[in-house]
Write a structure and sequence with these properties.
The protein has three domains: 218 residues, FAD/NAD(P)-binding domain; 105 residues, Flavocytochrome C3, Chain A, domain 1 (Alpha-Beta Complex); 86 residues, Up-down Bundle (Methane Monooxygenase Hydroxylase, Chain G, domain 1), CATH 1.20.58.100. Helix content is 38%, strand content 15%. The chain contains 16 helices and 17 strands. Strands 1, 2, 6, 7, 8, 9 and 16 form a seven-stranded mixed sheet that branches. A four-stranded antiparallel sheet has the order 11-14-13-12, covered by helices on one side. The chain has a three-stranded antiparallel sheet with strand order 3-5-4. Strand 1, helix 1 and strand 2 form a beta-alpha-beta unit. The structure holds flavin-adenine dinucleotide (FAD).
Length: 523
Amino acid sequence: MHTDILVIGTGISGLTYAIKLAEKSPATKITLICKQQLDEGNTRYAQGGIAVVSNFKKDTFDKHIMDTYIAGDYQGDKEVIDFVIREGNDRLNELIDWGTQFDKKENNRLDLTKEGGHSEKRIVHFKDHSGAEIQRALIQKVKEFQNIQYFENHILVDLITDHHTKTNHQTCYGAYIISTLDEEIIKITAQITVLSTGGLGQLYDFTTNPAGATADGLGAAYRAKAFLEKLPFVQFHPTALFPKVNGETFLITEALRGEGAILKNHLGEAFMEKYHPSKDLAPRDIVARSIIQEIKTQKSKHVYLDATNIKAKVLLNHFPYIVENCQSVGINPLEDLIPVIPAAHYSCGGIKVDENSSTTLKGLYAIGECSHTGLHGANRLASNSLLESIVFSHRAAIKTCVDLENNPLEKDFYLKVPDWKGQSYTSTNPAKQTQDLRKQLCKIMNEDVGIFKTTQGLINAQKQVKQLYFDIVQLYNNNKLSPQICELRNMVSVAYVMVNQSLILTQNNGVFYNHDYATNPIL
Ligand SMILES: Cc1cc2nc3c(=O)[nH]c(=O)nc-3n(C[C@H](O)[C@H](O)[C@H](O)COP(=O)(O)OP(=O)(O)OC[C@H]3O[C@@H](n4cnc5c(N)ncnc54)[C@H](O)[C@@H]3O)c2cc1C
């Protein structure tokens, strides 16, 4: 198949980009693919909302810029922070024009809330399921365009590059894709390929990310020789419900602490005041480390979040999804303490991109959580990632129009791209082995590459992940390719890069914490 534009991933980034481009360039054929259904990805699970300066009476761009820079431990790119925050309000209005509903006050103005690290109320939200509402509206909008087609249940295997075409343009020409239904591998060539494949949370045992967040875009970009940056900066959300619900870790939004919920240990003590003057609304990395410290001291499996001091009306109206999920496991947040534990939540690092989301490979863009733009520095400010996605999708769509006019390759060139070359198989049913290898990888990541790291732990992890990498390459070479093997191959590559990049860092910033460099057990 040939298409003008191939977009891999249909969260907020891929969908916004496709809508923008389809509006600007109706003759351009855009093909979207996604792993599962169109609406499945991290976007759907976002609870809090989008951080945007919209109340210009109280808030200013400068305040949001400063909050972002401080949360990122002064490591963010100042220019990027500046334009993302200034462009945010226009992009938010587009989401609203496309049909997204956000909560409003009686005077019809947006109802803004506050989250940790924000100096003003600026989070635009829809109850406690903002992401699902955004995803719904974007999918509805995408379906209006004749020039957008989409394929669900199709997984990126590898990007097509000069390695496949035996050319030397340092260009991406599309991708090989595996269908999850019949495991057939197809070739889709494209003038422009966009990775919007989301996060990597599944590298860890406890993660707020859904099952599909297996770092696929990053793994494929790495094999295609695009640069990956800042991978050690994985943000752990302090409060996920413990234990898992139906095998998945459920997030308890920070907005609950914004409304007054308090973290308590097994002795019933509110412990955050021991660790930070902002107590329960201290930066996420500090809260997460404080919780782990309490868990270790008390030899417990979790701590508690006490939301019983929040009015029942507020809990039921603003957090219906959280109340429902807690009740499904027998916890009533109106009366009971909620058991919580930190969980891998957001990748601040990713595929290196410029101010238009172009990667270092011609014809390849990366947008959203799989990219590294420089906005978040060493720690993402709450609700800044949906903002980053809409701003960079817009910029990438504008730049794509320029690229399409300047593409020097003839259409015939794409006909010469070879089909996927199958492997010679010795076995066809490695499901158990694939699962075991994945468990081993997660165990190493949890133990040595989690919230608290040490240099010796990282050295151990490097050795073990390297061995796993060879085992997984063998698994890949000797078996019929399956979606599970694709995911594992990506996960191990990204884990390896993350461990190596962690070992190069010589100081602690934001979410990266190596105990050997610390002067304080938490900060
Ligand atoms: C529980 C939770 C709560 C959050 N709350 C907030 C919040 O309140 N505010 C905020 O700003 N951010 C929040 N975030 C972060 C934010 O939701 C994500 O960073 C953002 O949605 C990422 O959007 P995306 O489009 O880049 O990727 P995603 O929405 O994750 O979409 C990824 C897409 O890529 C597809 N895909 C992945 N791999 C492949 C493959 N190999 N082949 C084909 N398709 C593939 C998936 O199917 C999916 O369509 C939250 C995240 C989580 C998990």
